[in-house]
Design goal:
By secondary structure, the chain is α+β, with helices and mostly antiparallel strands. 25% of the residues lie in helices and 32% in strands. Strands 4-5-6-3-2-1-7 form a 7-stranded mixed sheet. The radius of gyration is 13 Å and the shape is globular.
Length: 111
């Protein structure tokens, strides 16, 4: 099964999205956006940038856990991954975003 985006609204009225893999695991989470349109633009940016290897920033947190950011062409972070136990697991997460990030399915959870 292919992945999808979920668009949701936080308790303070801001919007965010997550990218889910076909197994329903969250593989990328966005920042908070003030408007729905901005969050939808973020989804479009994931769709455009996720296939491009050079858009992934591989990082290690202070606690030693591996994670990554997906960046747009202007170097702004579009979304961030969960923390992974190893660099290999992180790289599998990147592969999953590359596979699922072009999805055009958006589940609207804002209502």
């Amino acid at each position: 099964m292919a992945g999808w985006f979920e668009l949701s609204k936080s308790s303070d009225g801001q919007f965010r999205f997550v990218l889910k893999a076909g197994n329903a695991e969250t593989i990328l989470s966005s920042e908070l956006y003030h408007t729905r349109a901005a969050a939808e633009n973020g989804i479009a940016s994931v769709q455009a940038n996720s296939p491009l290897e050079e858009r992934y920033e591989r990082k290690t947190a202070a606690n030693g856990k591996a994670f990554f950011n997906l960046k747009a062409g202007n170097h702004q972070v579009i979304g961030s991954s969960q923390m992974y136990s190893s660099e290999a697991a992180r790289d599998n997460g990147i592969d999953s975003v590359k596979t699922n990030g072009a999805s055009t399915t958006v589940k609207d959870l804002t209502g």
